[in-house]
Every structure is written in structure tokens, then in C-alpha cells.
Amino acid sequence: MKSFLKIVLGTMVGILLLFFLISFVGIFSISKLSQKSKVSINPNTVLRVDFSTPIGERGIESPFSELDIPFNPGPDAKLGLDQILLALNKAKDDSNVKGIYLDLNGIAAGWVQMEDIRNGLIDFKESGKFIYAYGEMISQKAYYMASIADKIYLNPSGILELKGFGAEVAFLKNALEKLDIEPRIFYAGKFKSATEPLRLEKMSDENRQQIKAYLNGFYQNYLDKVSVARNMSKDQLHNIIDNLLIRDPEDALGYSVVDELLYEDAVYDKIRESSGLDMDDKIKFASLSKYIKTGVDDTKFSKNKIAIVYADGDIVDGKGDGQNIASARYTPIFEKIRLDDNVKAVVLRVNSPGGSALASDVIWNEINRIKEKGIPVVTSMSDYAASGGYFIACNSDKIFAESTTLTGSIGVFGILMDMDQFFNEKLGITFDTVKTTKYSDFPNSALLTGDLTSTEEEIITNSIKKIYKQFKERVAKGRGLTMEQVEEVAQGRVWTGQQALTNGLVDEIGNMEDALAEAAEMAGLDEYRKVSYPKAVDPVQQIMNKLSGNSDEEVAKAILKSRLGRMYKHLEFVDKITQWNTVQARMPFSVEIY
Predict the structure, then answer these.
(1) Is the Cβ–Cβ distance between 67 and 97 less than 8 Å?
(2) Of 59, 223, 304, 590, which residue is 20 to 30 A from 238 by alpha carbon distance?
């Protein structure tokens, strides 16, 4: 009895502690979120721009981002590309901002995001204010952004990477064979290389061809922009990169790739000098995240609206998890836009490698209904708008891509993982089935028993062909092309934005602002306000969602990611495959460009 009372008492104490912890989380979160008042910056401020953490299409606030805790119960904080561009535009005319200091030690932004930020920095320079860049380890992506700076400084013992572009694809075929797992793959389009890691040991000739083509597109854009910014010819820059001539800091200085070799404290002296400070004065740095809090929202009051729909992430069936493009979540959004008489145009911002073909078609239909009402739809493509990402965009009135956008990938595939031998030989688990008709266990027959009849294979193959034909028809109708013309650029092949323009898959090379301007012109608007969808998820609600049942999974993922590093993506790849239950319209997601 005494032991029983101790257990009960201990349980009650545990429950009370958990209650107080959750209460603290809620109170702290609410208090942090309630602090919405604008902050201010001092005169002679220098913006310190650091992109070592991921950038989202839109910003995400986290009340726990400033706390040093092992597991963040809230959403991961992110700066939004939209916020960054607004901040740079504001800083251009802000008398309190003297200049910008680019910290080049780590760049987590995508290539298209970096292109947009780079253009924002070029616009900032028109103010006459300085931009200085410094790094100890400067990657090719970081150097691309830094090339527009007035001065680039490299640490005397630092590293600057200029070697050209490569792409890495991980192949899992042999690993699956060792586990006695056999993927049953059905696909349409000879370039549909998303399935190659499961069925080949190296790239097919077709895949190698497409990867080389879009890498060359990346490289030519790099040469064009950097050579102009650094006042050298493309041939000079190509010679430096092609022969790996930058092997130490002295090489970087000798070939005029950087302006000086300095430690960071000496760079601070340069900033003081340009800011009109004495050498003993403290520099007033402000981070981008702080500067954004000074108020960079450009929303104007107007009855007329342009709806901006952010389609960011994998395209999935159902409601999703809030981090992807879920058909059941986006359908009511498009319906709300369509029924709002004040919405005069829609801009669809796509950053997606694709996903479920079914969900893609559901979203395509909603966009088509908006167009049928007479509301113009303009698409702006970010880093990716491929396969399903292109599917949902192809019927837009006008499509803008950026030079390094990866798009196209018009093709579909389906995968059934035959787990029979794995369960039987590795785990000692067998399955037996009772059914009322001969197809009652289809397609589970392939998953658990390894049995897939010729009729079942024919059913799946015909389904893949039908969806592929539908995809091409959608593209032909939306782009005003013949089926023959679409077939020439389809086959699952991926294109850069510049190549897509040549092939008629997009209309112009441009960014989000270009798409907004086009949408306003098509709608005949001189004044409008922007309304963004999906609405930002309340961070407190995200915290409670995690605490209510998903925290263990989140913690496990965080630990695995930290331990496995860059190998984590391969585990994540296999995990995603097990969740695909419909035909996929997806680009070769396993390609890593470096």
C-alpha cells in the first residue's frame, strides 16, 4: 500500500510538472508574440547581412528562437525572401543606414533566392551607400552574391571556392538488394530520372545529358553575372575557374577575384572609415532580422486585391502537415479567392519539385476555375517549379521563371516496394490473406507477398500512361502548343528557366516583382494591396500541435539530422518513398548541385 501511494504521488507530481511546463510554454509564447511593436535603429547603422540559416519564401517567427534549448517546441524561425527584399529596398533610402556588411561565412539560400537578393543589393548600391563583403570560407554561391560588393575581403588564411558546378546523385539500388527489397517501378518519359536511384547503379545517358545541360545553364549565368560585376571578361573568369587557379588567398588577390586580404578587425576599420567614425568608435551593426522589425511591410490600403498564393514544398494529397502543398488545404484557399469580388488578379509563387499527380490536378482545376471567372493568373517560379510544380503552373496566363529555376520535368511515375523477401528473410515475418475477389488485395499483393499479376501490372502501366497524356494535354492547352511540340520538351526532362523560355514553357525571365507588375497590368490596376495565402500558421498553435503528439517524432528527426549530417537526406528519401500512395509527378529530387 505504501509503495502504491508513492507511485500515485509521483505520478501526480509528474503531471503537475508537465502542466506547469506547458503553461510556461503557452505564457512565454503569447508574451513573445504580443511584442509586435516596431523597433528602431540608431543613426550610422550598418546592416550585417548573414545568410547562414535557411531562407523561406515567407518569414516564420518563433518565440523560442532566442532560447538555447535542445528541442524547439515551436516553428523553426526563418527570414522570408519577401521580407529581405523589402528591407533592402527600405534601407536604400533610410538615412540611418550607412551601408551593408555581407558576412559570407555560410550561405543557406537557394540559387534563385540568391539571385533575387543579389538584384536587391544591386538596387541598394544605387543609393551610393557602401557594400563590403568578407569571408573566411567563401563558397561559389557566396561569391556570386558578393561579386556585386564595392570591396571583397578574404581572410589571409581563408579559402575561396571557384571550381565550376557539379551534381551528385545517390543510388540506392544495391542497398535495397542487400535488404531484399525490390522496387516495382512504372514510369513515362525517358528522362524520368526520379526513379533512377532505385533501379540503376549510375546515371542513365539521358539523365546525364539533362543534368549536364542545366548545369551548363547555371555556369553560363554565373560567368555572365560575375564577370560583369568584377570587371573582367567571361573568358578570363572561365580560365580561372576551369583551371582551378584560385588555390590560396594570394591567388585570389593576384587574379583580382578579391580586393584585399584582411582579418575581420581590419575590415571593421574600413567600415568605420566609410561610416565617418573614429577608429576607436564602436560600429552599430543591425541584423536583417532586427531591421525587418523596424517595419518593412509595403501593404497599402485599397479595395482592389492581388492574391499571392505561395506553393512551397512537396505536393501531397489530403491536408498535409503545413509544410507542403496539400490539395485539401489549398482547395478552400483558391475557392475563397475565386469568390472574393475584390480579388482582381492572382500571383502563384511556386517553389516545388512536384509530388502527387492527383493533388497536382486538383490544384490545376482550382486555378482553372479562377481563370474561367476572368481573374488573370500569373506564375512566378522560384528555385523549383518542376513536374507537379509545373503542372499547377502551366495554365497560367503568364509564367515568369528565373534563369536558374529548375522547371519542366513533364512526366510521371509510380513505385511499389516489394517487401516480401525483406519481411520473410530479414525479419521472419510472413503474411497470408483472405479475400472475397481476386483483386481485393491489390496493390498490397506487391507490397507484402511479392505477387503482382500481369493484369495488375497492365492496370498500373495504363494508369501511368493516362496521367502522362493528361499532363501533356494540360501543358498543350495552357501554353498554346501542339501535342507534338510538348512531347519534344516533355519525357520528364528538367530545364533551366532560360532553356524553358527558349522551349516555350515559360514567357519571361523575371522575379516576383515582375510577376506582380504583370498581374496588375493585366487586371488594369493602378493601386492594389497584396493579400498572401496560405495564412501564416499561429506559432502558439504549432507549439501545441508538437506537444500534443508529434514531439517524439520531431526530436528523433532532429537528432538523426544532426548526427548524420549530409547523409540524412538519403534516409529522408527512403522515408518519403514509403509515404507515396499515388502516381507521382516529381522531378529528380535526389540531385545535389555543388
Answers:
(1) no
(2) 590
pLDDT in tens, 96-143: 999 999 999 878 888 888 899 999 999 999 999 999 999 999 999 999
Tell me, yes or no, whether 3 lies in a domain: no
Active site residues: 192, 387
Tell me the residue range of the domain where 113 lies.
45-162+246-292
Q: Give the count of alpha carbons within 13 A of 193, CB side only.
A: 24
Whether residues 433 and 417 share a domain: the answer is yes
Q: Is residue 171 within 8 Å of residue 450, measured between CB atoms?
A: no
Shared domain for 131 and 185, answered yes or no, is: no
The set of residues, in sequence order, having a beta carbon less than 8 Å from that of 95 and lying 6+ positions away, is 43
**360 with 352: CB under 8 angstroms?**
no
Does residue 404 fall inside a structural domain?
yes
Q: Are residues 254 and 399 in the same domain?
A: no
End-to-end CA distance of the chain: 66
Mean pLDDT of the chain: 84
- Region 309-333: mean pLDDT is 91
Look up residue 347 and give its three cell numbers: 500571383
State the pLDDT at residue 87: 92
Residue percentage of the chain with pLDDT more than 70 = 78
548 — pLDDT class (breaks 50, 70, 90): low
Does the structure show a pLDDT above 60 at 277?
yes
Phi, psi of 13 (to 5 degrees): -60, -45
The secondary structure of 223-259, three-state, reads HHHHHHHCCCCHHHHHHHHHCCCCCCHHHHHHCCCCC
Instruction: Give the span between the Cα atoms of 381 and 590, in whole angstroms.
Output: 20
Asked if residue 557 is part of any domain, the answer here is no
| Residue the block writes with cell 517560379 | 381
Q: Grid coordinates representing 108?
A: 543557406
Q: Is 5 exposed, middle or buried (0-12, 13-18, 19+ CB in 10 A)?
A: exposed
In this structure, what C-alpha cell is assigned to residue 503?
A: 522551349
Domain count for the chain, please give it.
2
Cβ contacts of residue 313 below 8 Å, gap of 6+?
A: 323, 324, 325, 351, 352
Same domain? For 330 and 426 the reply is yes
Judge if 388 and 499 occupy the same domain. Answer: yes
Alpha helices, DSSP H, located in 134-199: 140-146, 173-178, 196-199
Average pLDDT, integer, range 359-374: 96
Rounded CA-CA distance 69/76 in Å is: 13
What pLDDT does 431 receive? Answer: 78
Q: Are residues 254 and 320 in the same domain?
A: no
Residue 561's pLDDT band (boundaries 50, 70, 90)? low
How far is Cα 500 from Cα 396, in angstroms, rounded to an integer?
15
Region 510-527 average pLDDT: 95
In Å, how far from its chain's centre is CA 315?
13
CATH number at residue 482: 3.90.226.10
